[in-house]
Model the fold of this input.
Amino acid sequence: MAIVVSTLNNPWFVFLAEKAQAKAKELGYESKVFDSQNNTSLETDHFENAMASGYDAILFNPTDADGSIVNVKNATAAGVPVFCMDREVNSSTAATSQILSDSYSGCVAIAKYFVETLNKKGKYVEILGMVGDNNTWNRSKGFHSVVDYYPGLKMVAQQSADFDRNKAMEVLESILQAHPDIDAVFCGNDAMAMGAYQALVAAGKADKIKVFGFDGAEDVVKSIQDGKIMATGMQFPEVMAQTAATFADEYFKGKRDFPQRMPVAVELVKKDNIENYAAYGKKE
Amino acid sequence: MKEKIKYIALFLLVVVVAYNSVYFKKLDEVKAGNTSFNAAKYAKEFWAKKLTPALGKAIETGQLLSVLKTDKDKAFKDYSHALGIGNIKYFLVKGRGIVQSVDENQVVVNVESDFEKPEVFIATEYVFGNAVRDASGTIDINEFANSMDFNNVSAEINKVIREQVIPPFRSKVKKGDIVEFSGAVELNKEHLSVNAMEIVPVSLKIIDNTLITN
Done:
């Protein structure tokens, strides 16, 4: 099995790739991880290499919901099944199956807590992920489907930081110059939440401005315990990786009727339920 | 002169081609979802053809609580729905009870039942999420081209609840009223908590307001 992942520059995706590889090994298959470095052209090269090298299935974490479709189509046309993990492609026919975090619902839950915590009023900043990724918009839409009902909550800035910690820090530092009086920051992933928190520490505002993330990454789980980050949406990358590898195994054994999309529930993690969770999923 | 006219014609041609070749749209409009899908229309049809008939199979709230206490696995297996993998499941419930208080974000009802008699919270403020869309188990995510369209259906269903179900109820309901309700409940199977069961309403009816205590 070829495991093609959007980036290995983020521990969350490293964990996803490792768990896919572990499940493939457990099922008796060889596997190799390919890092697309958030570059669709590189991803195309990986797909071509994987097919030329004789891999029988691709467990895939796309770089772009639209830009990655052609890679998926080429593989499936060549008889190589593709199982998307966490991120989707905008097609109901290209992939064999897509196992996806229910980002929208997770962010609805975060947003309800956001509104309650801010008591329905205040100024906030939204830091988006990669604009070509559906998860970015599913998270943003889920969040706004709640927050936009409250006129007392005003978004003073919305910028992308590409799911990157350092970029998020720079983005928020810049925003704080123009809007020093914000009350909260909502980030499309935990890496950016940590970057935003760093910017707030540097500005001496970490105890006044509330930060919300999404992912369930290790440092954010600890930061929620420590009261530094307010909440995150816990995703279950291990469940997604294992399901993708299991689907591939079932495909090799003859199964063909896979659900086109398989959502995986996201759970709200905050200080009063943090004892139930560890990084990237539940406590054992 | 001819040369000049030729250049002007060529320039106009380039302008026309360029004007018709390039479109500017806001990024969030482009990414907001498939514009050919009408989520409001879909939600209206879903409500009439799938959700309303499914209410006949909703479990009585006190009975659900009783089954959850005695056999959690059976309760989730027999009465919950979810579209994917995970701990979050949705139940379609119904019930009748006496209003204990009308709060800023909810109406608190003491359920009358032959089984358990829980205190439930009917959401009147925070009507968000997929509970109502998913609780009936009659919707298939694979009908949709992408998850944004699917999520927009939830937003439209919740809009119907917020605009049509809650206002006529909220404007009249008082402490002591007897009310009938149906709606959806979200529960986490792994970390189950039924102490503050929140119901996102699908139908609300004041049966009797002669028991006003204040």
Q: What stands out?
A: The CA atoms of residues 97 and 259 of chain A lie 6 Å apart. DSSP finds nine helices and 14 strands in chain A. Chain A has a mean pLDDT of 95.
